[in-house]
Amino acid sequence: DADVTQTPRNRITKTGKRIMLECSQTKGHDRMYWYRQDPGLGLRLIYYSFDVKDINKGEISDGYSVSRQAQAKFSLSLESAIPNQTALYFCATSDFPSGAYNEQFFGPGTRLTVL
Amino acid sequence: GENVEQHPSTLSVQEGDSAVIKCTYSDSASNYFPWYKQELGKRPQLIIDIRSNVGEKKDQRIAVTLNKTAKHFSLHITETQPEDSAVYFCAAQRTGANNLFFGTGTRLTVIP
Known about the structure:
By secondary structure, chain A is mainly β. Chain A is built from no helices and eleven strands. Chain B is about 0% helix and about 60% strand.
């Protein structure tokens, strides 16, 4: 879905480096999410945001931070990368009207390798 | 929080056969159950979902069933085709909760 984009698509870095992954969306959705995907572990939520002033921790937020710069932009930072943060990272968005459930739209993913 | 378990982790079927993937959940208040398909190297995409006021939902060759008493739901794919080969994720969410809880995924391989 070209409406949700992530940069970079691939990144190799070294232990201790600071890394920022960026997500942009043109869908006009208020809700944005960052997930991590590891083989055999599925998709695990790192952080989510329901609007520019709202940031919430997910199930695996330790070692990560986020910034919601605008409705359309949500960035994930690794302040000091470590090898076990090597994974595929997905950004997602959703439109969640009160009383309804809406699907999440995923970005193309960022493959991060920490050496 | 919610805990979603998914089985099997891998599944191989012959083209034309049916495939069934099963998930269980722990939070009895969960009432929304989507299924996502992730093709190799691609992003997850919603293929079907079911809400707790419905026991079964069909969309062409795919169907999802829900048993709220037993807290499990299943994805059924009939007449499988090679393009069905992918990783499938189930998920659960309850009213008022802020996020989905995903299962660990099932890699389905359809053998031509």
